[in-house]
Amino acid sequence: MKVLIIGSGAREHAIMHKLSLDPKVEVHAAPGNGGMAGLGPNHPVDVNDPDAIVSLAKEIGAGLVILGPEAPLVAGAVDALEAAGIAAFGPTKAAAQLEGSKIFSKEFMARHGIPTADFRVFGDPDEADRFIEEANRPLVVKADGLAAGKGVFVAKDAAEAKDAVDRIMRKREFGASGERILIEETLVGEEVSYHVISDGTRYLRMAPAQDHKRVFDGDQGPNTGGMGAYSPPPVVTPEVEEAIIQRVVEPTLRGMREEGVPFKGALFVGLMIVDGEPQVLEYNVRLGDPECESLMARMKGDVLPLFLGAARGDFGEFSPSWEAPAALCVVLASGGYPGEFEKGKPIEGIDEANQTEGVIVYHAGTRLEGDTIVTSGGRVLTVTAIGGNVDDAAARAYEAASKIRFDGVHYRKDIGHHARTR
Ligand code: AMP
Ligand code: GLY
Questions:
Q1: Which of 379, 307, 372 is nearest to 88 (CA)?
Q2: Is 134 found in the same domain as 80?
Q3: 335 and 376 housed in the same domain
Q4: Where is the domain boundary, 179, 212, 247?
Q5: Mean pLDDT on 410-417
Q6: How is the chain split among helix, strand and coil, in percent rounded to 5?
Q7: Which residues in 213-247 are b (16+ Cβ under 10 Å) and which e?
Q8: Is the CB of 382 within 6 Å of ligand 2?
Q9: Domain termination residue (choose one: 290, 312, 334)
Q10: Which residue lies with its CA nearest to atom 10 of ligand 1?
Q11: Tens of pLDDT along 226-268?
Q12: Which of 19, 54, 57, 44 is nearest to 307 (CA)?
């Protein structure tokens, strides 16, 4: 079967690599990257254009299209593919609102009694300012729509919160995503990424994971798309996992069904574990990046039945199992990221890094220029290692990362710190 993977990040490289190990699968990517180009044809496409994705899928004769990032899902790519009779992994446009609108998702949680921070919605910046002044405590200010992970401001005081309102609503730094905002209470605890894959009726649990969103060691500096992840995080004890399933996952999937928008694809719940209790920070309607890289590295056997089963609405007998006890990945970023950065820097040492035992280097912002791999984005590579425990995986990932060189490279040295003893 021909499988077309839409996206150009390390998440999509990891999915493509895992699928490429299956002799029954011929992998294609669009638009792809410098690493995905080594696994199969990479086709140009505008990922925000559902019709372009359908045309490409038809041209290739794809039996399955996997939508990696949120943008094509929110734009309706799955609806368009299904209308054309092509199996697609991901939710419909209506179900993708769980990620596409933070206000939709908070109001959904409120309707279904799903634990989340108390919140208010504002369409008028002056009203938001008045609320902030009266509250006079730490608050979180969020743009309603998609903002590539940058529309959330964890404000320590009223001045910071008002500055966030100004940037989102008056300066419109995130365009139409800032027409309305959410202001939430601040939660304090440990963050966890929990994924299930649903076929619309049933769901399968993925192993729990933990991301590191801040750019610097010790969780300092601005938020990024994610600087590293690992699985499994010790904070997700069996009791905590059951609470996540009973109080969050099941009510969410049931609620979506009851509201006439059954959820198919990857439901990724971003959680804060507060004194052992899960609170939802946000929903995402796709796999996390870099969480997905850790999960693909740990997963046993073929992954096609997972994606195809979800897309067709029937997993059959398939259920995932986790061959490697742990996996950890470190994101190598361009100098300046998550702010401005330069592109086109030649990268050395990827082959040596890949030769480290248990290691695989997934590409994100890379492209092939002649025979040379050069940087082309903020997050450049995700160095991923499996191991007998998180310490082992970390030692391998960091040994491999030290072999890779490009001008300006930086990465966190403390990925997995909640789980590491060394
Ligand atoms: P979101 O995109 O909504 O997950 O927010 C991005 C990041 O902001 C999260 O990963 C958290 O680190 C932080 N955050 C979001 N909401 C809250 C909250 N209510 N309390 C504390 N931190 C939050
Ligand atoms: N790693 C967080 C995300 O994919 O949104």
A1: 307
A2: no
A3: yes
A4: 179
A5: 98
A6: 30, 30, 40
A7: bbbeeeeeeebbbbbbbbbbbebbeeebbebbbeb
A8: no
A9: 312
A10: 213
A11: 999 999 999 999 999 999 999 999 999 999 999 999 999 999 9
A12: 19
The total number of structural domains in the chain stands at 4
**Model confidence band, residue 151 (pLDDT cutoffs 50, 70, 90):** confident
Could you tell me the CATH number of the domain that includes residue 142?
3.30.1490.20
Ligand closest to the CA atom of residue 143:
1
pLDDT of residue 421: 87
The answer on 245 and 197 residing in a single domain is yes
Is residue 149 pLDDT above 80, yes or no? no
Cα 198 from Cα 68, distance rounded (Å): 15
**Could you tell me how far CA 240 lies from the centroid of its own chain?**
21
Q: Is residue 164 assigned to a domain?
A: yes
Q: In what order do the strands lie in the sheet with 359-363?
A: 210-211, 228-231, 326-333, 379-387, 359-363
Is any atom of ligand 2 closer than 6 Å to the C-beta of 35? no
54 and 130 share a domain? no
Domain ranges, residue 275: 190-312
* Alpha-helical segments (H) within 36-170: 50-60, 70-75, 77-83, 97-100, 102-111, 125-135, 158-165
**Rounded Cα gap, residues 320 and 299, in angstroms:** 7
Nearest CA to ligand 2 atom 4: 288
Q: How far apart are CA 65 and CA 1, in angstroms?
A: 11
Q: Are 267 and 286 in contact (CB under 8 A)?
A: no
Of 177 and 109, the structure prediction assigns the larger pLDDT to 109
Tell how far the Cα of 105 is from the centroid of ligand 1, in angstroms. 14
Q: For residue 422, is pLDDT > 80?
A: no
Is 204 found in the same domain as 175?
A: no
Measured in Å, residue 208 CA sits from the centre of ligand 1 at 18
Mean pLDDT over residues 287-308, rounded? 97
Tokens 């590191």 found at: 212
pTM confidence score: 0.96
Query: 301 and 249 share a domain?
Result: yes
